[in-house]
Specification:
Elements (H helix, E strand, L loop, with lengths): L3 E2 L5 H10 L6 H11 L13 H10 E2 L7 E4 L5 E6 L5 E9 L2 E5 L3 E3 L8 H4 L2 E4 L2 H9 L9 E4 L9 H12 L11 E5 L3 H10 L3 E5 L5 H7 L8 H8 L10 E7 L7 H11 L5 E6 L13 H13 L3 E4 L16 H8 L1
Parallel strand pairs: 1-2, 6-9, 9-10, 10-11, 11-12, 12-13, 13-14
Antiparallel strand pairs: 3-4, 4-5, 5-6, 7-8
Helix pairs in contact: 1-2, 5-6, 10-11
């Protein structure tokens, strides 16, 4: 019988387990501390729990940790890690060091259902949902785990297509019994699944990033089929119902494609769409992927686009590309390719 994982459980669930095994109720608190504060790899390391009770736990449970099975390092210092999931899928995570900021790009699914034209992850198809255990394992099991200052759920998958497990992971990351991280250190990205986005905004205080890529519905639908179900206009109208003027930050991700979405006509429409909404826009270079006839905009156009938004009251930055040489940059994660290289 497959053992259940302890990582990903909250104190109430741990308490149910220890009581079912006739252990003292306070053992649940001890287990949570070992899991999330001390981040142990085995039940045997829980030394303030009796050996008898450790054996009882080991009969039915495991920690839920697994090391990455492959790693690549970019010329710019970015590192990409490959993990194997419990059901045999492969996922990738990206560690991005930059001065005193150390960010991990976390995956929420194996593959993706959204089929965005510019994304290699979507082109490999959908393999399955990740559990909170598997999301947290990416954070706990890389060699740089102790250095992390920020998390971005911008890896493989659409986080709001897996909201329940995402929220479970975020609760553990931000709760006092867990990592006790400030929600300001965590950003979740979406292409705009409105009902789940609202659920996230009501249940979590983490930052939100929305993938825009063009302000025009027809163009966006060609790039991102979900536009037909949840139009950008409706996404923005929904976001206007929430307060982003305090600690929570709202940003829009805008990948720049040569001759497609990089004109002043687009910049003017972006300003119209976002007028009065407390937010920022991140311009992102497109990273070429096989069999996709798109090219990135040149620097001159990106700067002009940024300057127009900035001059019209919208904070806008050009995001620096990282890890492109190892297929670790935005939209390039596709572990089926890496797996093939390893075999």
């Amino acid at each position: 019988m497959e053992k259940k994982s302890l990582v990903g459980l909250n104190p109430a669930e741990l308490k149910e387990i220890v009581l079912s095994l006739d252990m003292p109720a306070f053992t649940a608190k001890q287990i949570a501390e070992w899991l999330y504060k001390k981040r142990v790899s085995s039940i045997d390391e829980m030394t303030n729990i009796s050996s008898k009770n450790r054996e009882l736990l080991k009969e039915n449970f495991e920690i839920g940790r697994s090391e990455p099975i492959f790693a690549q390092t970019s010329a710019d210092g970015t590192k990409k890690y490959l993990f194997k999931t419990r059901n045999g899928n492969f996922i990738e995570s990206v560690f991005i060091p930059e001065y005193d900021r150390f960010t991990l790009c976390v995956s929420s699914q194996a593959g993706c259902k959204m089929a965005c034209k510019f994304c290699m992850t979507g082109k490999q198809g959908f393999g399955g949902q990740l559990s909170a255990t598997e999301m947290l394992n990416q954070i706990m099991s890389i060699p740089e785990a102790g250095e992390l200052t920020n998390l971005v759920f911008m890896g493989m998958g659409e986080p709001f297509d897996n909201t329940q497990e995402l929220l479970r992971a975020l609760e553990i990351l931000t709760s006092d019994y867990g990592y006790a991280w400030s929600p300001k250190r965590i950003t979740v990205s979406t292409i705009g699944i409105i009902p789940e986005m609202k659920h996230f905004l009501e249940k979590s205080a983490c930052h939100l990033a929305v993938s825009m890529n063009t302000p025009f519905a027809k163009e966006r639908a060609e790039l991102m089929p979900l536009e037909k179900t949840y139009p950008l206009q409706e996404v923005i109208e929904t976001l206007r119902q929430y307060d982003f003027s305090k600690q929570r930050r709202l940003s829009f991700e805008y990948i720049m494609f040569e001759g497609l979405n990089d004109t002043m006509r687009h910049a003017v429409e972006v300003v119209k769409l976002l007028k009065g909404l407390e937010c920022r826009v991140n311009l992102i270079r497109f990273h070429a992927i096989p069999d996709v006839d798109l090219r990135t905009s040149d620097e001159r156009k990106m700067v002009a686009f940024r300057d127009y938004l900035t001059n019209n009251g919208i904070i806008c930055t050009i995001r620096r590309s990282r890890g492109e040489d190892i297929f670790a940059a935005c939209g390039m994660l596709a572990p089926k390719r890496v797996k093939a290289q390893m075999l």
